[in-house]
């Protein structure tokens, strides 16, 4: 497609899907062939010197098949190796021309195709989905002006202020190099050693110690572009912008104990959840929001807009919702699409530009560089998932795995022999021009003093948490540091917590047997010539607000029960009516009901019907469900004798989930729980009671009186 052809994006057309279709094959009804297209007669026996003889080198069919297999792996991503992706569309609610000339942010009739990939950061490709970690949230917009990538995370700040520290951060969190453990975990000495020496990391650490780091679902997390970017309008005027993704499924986290158990029971928990939601037509949606700051207000805030360890509280600059992304199609092939997709924060379209955030500036180098080795050369933009919709017309040629066949003798610019083609595009023709920022500076290896308030924003974050969210943060610090073997590292972190919140430092210190001490915090970087370190110390600045409700997850719950997974525990003799009516009613509200019984196969209901079973107690676990329901009947007499059924209910309760029964089913609840007269336990068998509890997601106050399970 030639640049500027708008039509393919309108009237429901999806030019990316069409483009991918040209590369898609389906083996249905086809003969088996070699890579050269030769039909194969026998794919089960190699060519031998006699039926019991040695295999012949001549066997090109065997050689080709094994050679391909031998080379099927490519290097995994150095970070964000474990990920899941999906196709979708982005629709704009209102034109943003006042701020940006980007076409996909101006024309509300256009549906821009997107591919999104969500990932953990630290773990390898085969690691658990539910590690305590930041999640990547990367979206590729296939716009009519070329690819625009918004490569963000599910947390709005980052660990470090300068890209030069990134390799150290990642080396510290990855498995330790001599022993190659722990996998997908930050709870170890090298990570906390680094953090204890890096006061700027504290804000992000607070986010990773919160439930944001253990999302219930990839569909239930917010996304953030983190850095401040620029919007540029037709007149060339610049506004600073921060990007937000707000999920319409609500925001929810897991319990930490639950997350650890899920890692054993179903380490594909998030991947499967995303796949199944899309497969069943429950398409996840996020609204895109922007926080806009006028150019002249650059220095108006008590923090530096260029500092990626800071966010702009929504209470200070509201988020304006401008459009919606819907993920509506699972990939056809994980490797070809999710594994080979190559994101880059430097893939821009006219109307969007960078700021001088030193973390962003370093990222602009890293992505293509790593992709050249990961995807095997400089032509990875030709891989179908990475191809832009506008045709690529330039003078780049050759390189490994080149697929484009450029005709003609001219591969340079300027030229006359090729009629001057391809032409440079002027501004009016959509040619990209960088924002003309005036720079008058001394070359210096240093950081701005405006970056040194490392403690006011983590304090704001902690202050903004509800009591259960605070408790989870206290427990997460205590868990992570409890796994650290070197006591002085623990002590340094506890000392740093003292700079942020005294009560938190004392609680965590108490759990570790340590007393927080007020000591000078470490400094990083070069020592100034005059030896005066004073101004290099981190400090806790003043913020105009003490709390920001927008930072808490507590009021971001969904107002429906769509895609919630509910386990029905049954056995022979289950009351037909109580069982099938409730199942139907919940499914009508788009919840997902799974029937679990002592054994696979069928159970006989009270009316003698045969009810098929989805899973047995052997294969199912409460941790992968959102709620439990026990319909009554003779089945309950069997279940109260079944240790797995009792454990199932108790574990769901321990993780603060809604647990329900009808009046005849409550015997099992009474057997499993010490107290059934608490919020989130209903025995009425009424749909509205169960639905109200499921909407609340969790009853975290139960953690104050934990039960064994
Ligand atoms: Fe990345 N990051 N990153 N990162 N990043 C990569 O690129 C890097 C950072 C993010 O699903 C790599 O193709 C540096 C912040 C996501 O394919 C690599 C720095 C944010 C993904 C890389 C950062 C991100 C990556 C590894 C510090 C949030 C997964 C493979 C200067 C705003 C994209 C690859 C996907 C991937 C470098 C920091 C988000 C090595 C040097 C901050 C979502 O190029």
UniProtKB/TrEMBL annotation:
Family note: Belongs to the catalase family. HPII subfamily.
Full protein name: Catalase
This enzyme's EC code(s): 1.11.1.6
Residue ranges of the region described as Disordered: 1-23
Domain Catalase core positions: 33-421
Biological process according to GO: hydrogen peroxide catabolic process; response to oxidative stress
InterPro entries: Catalase, Catalase_AS, Catalase_clade2, Catalase_clade2_helical, Catalase_core, Catalase_haem_BS, Catalase_immune_responsive, Catalase_large_C
Keyword annotations: Heme, Hydrogen peroxide, Iron, Metal-binding, Oxidoreductase, Peroxidase
Basic and acidic residues: compositionally biased ranges: 1-19
Cofactor section: heme
Keyword Oxidoreductase applies: yes
Record cross-link 3'-histidyl-3-tyrosine (His-Tyr), residues: 344-367
One Pfam family cited in the UniProt record for this chain: Catalase_C
């Amino acid at each position: 497609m030639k640049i500027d052809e708008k039509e393919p994006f309108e009237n429901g057309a999806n030019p990316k899907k069409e483009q991918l279709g040209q590369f898609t094959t389906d083996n249905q009804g086809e003969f088996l062939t070699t890579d050269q297209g030769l039909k194969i007669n026998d794919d089960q026996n190699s060519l031998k010197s006699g039926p019991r003889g040695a295999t012949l080198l001549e066997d090109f069919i065997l050689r080709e098949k094994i050679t391909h297999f031998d080379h099927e792996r490519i290097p995994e991503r150095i970070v964000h190796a474990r990920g899941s992706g999906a196709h979708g569309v982005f629709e704009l609610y209102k034109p943003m021309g006042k701020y940006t000339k980007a076409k996909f942010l101006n024309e509300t009739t256009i549906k821009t195709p997107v591919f999104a990939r969500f990932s953990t950061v630290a773990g390898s490709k085969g690691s658990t989905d539910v590690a305590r970690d930041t999640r990547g949230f990367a979206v590729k917009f296939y716009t009519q002006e070329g690819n625009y990538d918004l490569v963000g995370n599910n947390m709005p700040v980052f660990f470090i202020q300068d890209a030069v520290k990134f390799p150290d951060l990642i080396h510290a969190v990855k498995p330790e190099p001599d022993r190659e453990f722990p996998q997908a975990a930050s709870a170890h000495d090298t990570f906390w050693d680094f953090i204890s020496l890096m006061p700027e990391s504290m804000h992000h650490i607070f986010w990773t110690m919160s439930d944001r780091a253990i999302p219930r679902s990839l569909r239930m997390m917010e996304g953030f572009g983190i850095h401040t970017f620029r919007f540029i309008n037709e007149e060339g005027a610049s506004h600073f912008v921060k990007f937000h993704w707000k999920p319409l499924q609500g925001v929810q986290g897991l319990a930490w104990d639950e997350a650890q158990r899920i890692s054993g029971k179903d380490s594909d928990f998030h991947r499967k959840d995303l796949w199944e939601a899309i497969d069943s037509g429950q398409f996840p949606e996020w609204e895109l929001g922007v926080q806009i700051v006028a150019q002249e207000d650059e220095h108006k805030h008590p923090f530096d807009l260029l500092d990626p360890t800071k966010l702009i509280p929504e209470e200070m600059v509201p988020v304006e919702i401008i459009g919606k992304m819907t993920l509506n199609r699972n990939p056809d092939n994980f490797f070809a699409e999710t594994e080979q997709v190559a994101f880059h924060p430097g893939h821009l379209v006219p109307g969007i530009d960078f700021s001088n955030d030193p973390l962003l500036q370093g990222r602009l180098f890293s992505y293509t560089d790593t992709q050249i080795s990961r995807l095997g050369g400089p032509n990875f933009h030709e891989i179908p998932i990475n191809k832009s919709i506008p045709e690529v017309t330039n003078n780049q040629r050759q390189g490994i795995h080149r697929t484009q066949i450029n005709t003609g003798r001219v591969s340079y610019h300027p030229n006359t022999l090729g009629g001057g083609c391809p032409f440079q595009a002027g501004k009016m023709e959509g040619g990209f021009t960088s924002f003309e920022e005036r720079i008058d500076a001394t070359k210096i290896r240093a950081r701005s003093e405006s970056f040194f308030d490392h403690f006011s924003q983590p304090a704001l974050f902690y202050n903004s948490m509800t009591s259960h969210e605070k408790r989870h943060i206290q427990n997460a610090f205590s868990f992570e540091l409890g796994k650290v073997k070197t006591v002085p590292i623990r002590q340094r972190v506890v000392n740093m917590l003292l700079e942020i919140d005294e009560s938190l430092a004392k609680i965590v210190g108490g759990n570790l047997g340590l007393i927080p001490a007020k000591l000078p915090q470490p400094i990083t970087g070069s020592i100034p010539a005059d030896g005066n370190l004073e101004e290099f110390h981190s400090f806790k600045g003043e913020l105009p607000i003490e709390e920001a409700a927008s930072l808490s997850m507590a009021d971001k719950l969904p107002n429906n029960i769509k895609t919630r997974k509910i386990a029905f525990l049954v056995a022979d003799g289950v009351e037909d009516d109580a069982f099938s009516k409730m199942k139907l009613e919940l499914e009508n509200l788009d919840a997902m009901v799974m029937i679990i019984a002592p054994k696979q196969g069928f159970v006989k209901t009270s009316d003698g019907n045969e009810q098929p079973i989805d899973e047995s107690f052997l294969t199912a676990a409460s941790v992968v469900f959102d709620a439990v329901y026990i319909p009554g009947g003779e089945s309950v007499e069997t279940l109260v004798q079944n240790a797995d059924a009792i454990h199932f209910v108790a574990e769901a309760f321990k993780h603060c989930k809604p647990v329900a029964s009808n009046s005849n089913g409550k015997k099992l609840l009474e057997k499993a729980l010490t107290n059934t007269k608490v919020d989130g336990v209903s025995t009425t068998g009424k749909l509205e009671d169960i639905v109200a509890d499921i909407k609340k997601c969790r009853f975290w106050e139960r953690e104050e009186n934990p039960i064994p399970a």
